[in-house]
Amino acid sequence: MTSTPSAAAGSAPAGEQSRPAESGVSLDHPGINELFALLAYGEVAAFYRLTDEARMAPNLRGRINMASMAAAEMNHYDVLRDALERRGVDVVPAMTRYASALENYHRLTTPSTWLEALVKTYVGDALAADFYLETAGSMPDEVADVVRLVLSETGHSQFVVAEVRAAVTASDRQRHRLALWSRRLLGEAITQAQYVLADRDELVDLVMSGGGLSQMTDFFDRLQNTHSTRMRELGLA
After folding, report:
1. pLDDT per residue of the chain (237 residues) written in tens, 0 to 9
2. Domain with 87 in it: what CATH number?
């Protein structure tokens, strides 16, 4: 994954920064900085999590796969840092405001086994992507392009499906245990998302603009439906 955003994600010409998108969200909406900062901290936290969990891998192939995903996270961080710098924002103090919620999520979902680490990588990160990508639909194109770029599929996580499915096919005990773990990941992800939204008015205003999350209950229902789909992909349904 390249660390350079697409041309559409670049800064708009002078005089167009305040022009609203069709959704009614303008490019100078303060919530955009908050969204980029939240994503940026998420990428850094994911990098350190993946490098730590790579040590749990039973073989070199697993460690390499985790390391590849960690490298992709830092490439995505570079995209977000550059996007914030174009908006005149220093990424480090901006993203530090979100440290508590994201670190709490990782602390409460620390895997104890390699298989738990794999499920968290596949399911936990996808839940976060569901949230961000849903909001992207109501953003100006320049903003939505950055969000979609940093959440795009790297292809590395597909090894997780094969390994987890093999393990749960061979052991009902593993299947039941990992299914419970997956539901825990869902619950903690929703809880931390609610904390973040409750704490940042600018972010709430942004994600609810244009009706993107105007029906919060419906959104969380969709989140659970996509989670169920991923459970089936992993053989955990």
Report:
1. 333 333 333 333 333 333 444 456 788 888 899 999 999 999 999 999 999 999 999 999 999 999 988 998 999 999 999 999 999 999 999 999 899 888 988 899 999 999 999 999 888 778 777 777 777 777 888 888 999 888 875 556 778 898 999 999 999 999 999 999 999 998 888 888 888 877 888 877 776 765 555 556 777 777 788 888 888 989 998
2. 1.20.1260.10
Both tokens of 82, joined, read 């550059």
Asked whether residue 88 is assigned to any structural domain, the reply reads yes
Domain encompassing residue 64 = 29-233
Q: Answer whether 0.70 is exceeded by the pTM.
A: yes
Percent helix, strand and coil across the chain, each to the nearest 5 = 75, 0, 25
Return d(Cα 64, Cα 73) in angstroms, integer. 14
